[in-house]
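Next up, sample data:
>
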Amino acid sequence: MDIRRITPRYAVSPQIRPEDVAELKEAGFVRVICNRPDSEVSGDERAEAIGRACADHGLDFVILPVDHSSLTPDLVAEQRAAIDEADGPVFAYCRSGTRCTHVWALGQAGRMPADDIVAAGAEAGYDLSPLRPALGSDR
């Protein structure tokens, strides 16, 4: 599994499978967010299977699928709340981790300097520079 830390409380990765959930628990995560729509996956990669594995390991599981039509201010606010309200570190996944990182970044706009948001994404291997106009100004 390719876990990429964005902040000490938030990490992302590409698609996971139920057998990966034990590693997430061992890594100290308390909540898992699924940002991948079920229409993109099949079998044990679907949210229901991952959710069952999370329940079996005592992890909270939140389903917030992201596609072009669902990336709304409401979804960004729901993701931010799912992170902020967790009792510890949160892990999110999608196909590559990019959508999870973008939703996080948009949720930090106005809360963190835009340069810091872009830098956090870059350190984890995600280019957030195209989002720069939506992240606000550091000036």
